[in-house]
Amino acid sequence: MPNHSSNNTLLDFSEKLHAVLIVLYLINLAGGTLGVIMMSQQLLQRRSQSVMTIIIISLLVLHTFMLLTIPFRLSYYILGEWKFGRFACRLASAFIYLHMYATFSFYVAIIVARLLRLEFRRCYTATWVGSVWLLGALVITPVLLSYYGTSKSYNSSKCFQFHREIQEAHMVIANYCLVGILVSVCAALTVIQLTVIYRVAVKYWPDVSCQLEFRAQAKSFFFILVTLVCFMPHHVFRVYYIQNYLDEDHKLLLYNEIFLALTTMCCLDMLCFIAGIAH
């Protein structure tokens, strides 16, 4: 009887977290799709060819690919069964990480360019952005899909459960490195950005809100906030997850899925662009 009661409790817990995942992904899908459509229309009307426009277009493409995977995730969490094959499962699972780190890279590029007041020629920006896309499409993605979720056997009706591979030495090292890089970069940029905003505010006080320089730096801080809200919780939890992982601990697995779902909230950034928070 105690064992039966424990199973029912775990089932109820799983259903509640699945409901949370469904709500999060529905919000991301609706808001993200609306933001992508509205931003695309705005870019077409402006027909701008600035450096910032090139990076925003890259973010639009990234978010679009991410949004295309969300209906598959919703289907799985609603039906409780994966119906799209093992490769599609690995692709949808891997892309959430590709999207997160690629988006973070573009955010860092925008922040650094604005902090250093760098002015790049459009052709140079297009070249390095194109190089990032080629590197991701021709090298990183194929390598990731060749190894991700392949070292263990998994139930074909289940998906997003490649957790048993996390205790392999190379996976532990890779995860700690990614956590260290993102947290360090984000912490450094946060301190630098806040220092710059403070100095500009002191310089132009009390008419600080009217100054273009202050508004530009404040808008750059938006990207740091997105990283702090969407990406940082997942990476902090990731350390705890690695250290406390147990194969039979489904609660940790579901919590990890919640934090992963939170990373896709960055797809809502386009709505903030439209609202004038960033450009």
From TrEMBL:
Main location as per UniProt: membrane
SUPFAM superfamilies: Family A G protein-coupled receptor-like (SSF81321)
Domain G-protein coupled receptors family 1 profile: 31-273
Entry's Gene Ontology cellular component terms: membrane
Short name of one Pfam family: 7tm_1
InterPro entries: GP183-like (IPR047160), GPCR_Rhodpsn (IPR000276), GPCR_Rhodpsn_7TM (IPR017452)
Mode of membrane association: Multi-pass membrane protein
TM region positions: 20-39, 51-74, 94-116, 128-148, 173-200, 221-241, 253-278
Cellular compartments annotated: Membrane
GO MF annotations in UniProt: G protein-coupled receptor activity; oxysterol binding
Keywords per UniProt: G-protein coupled receptor, Membrane, Receptor, Transducer, Transmembrane, Transmembrane helix
PANTHER family: G PROTEIN-COUPLED RECEPTOR 141B (PTHR24237:SF40), G-PROTEIN COUPLED RECEPTOR (PTHR24237)
Protein name as catalogued: G-protein coupled receptors family 1 profile domain-containing protein
The organism of origin for this protein: Malurus cyaneus samueli
Source species taxonomy: Eukaryota, Metazoa, Chordata, Craniata, Vertebrata
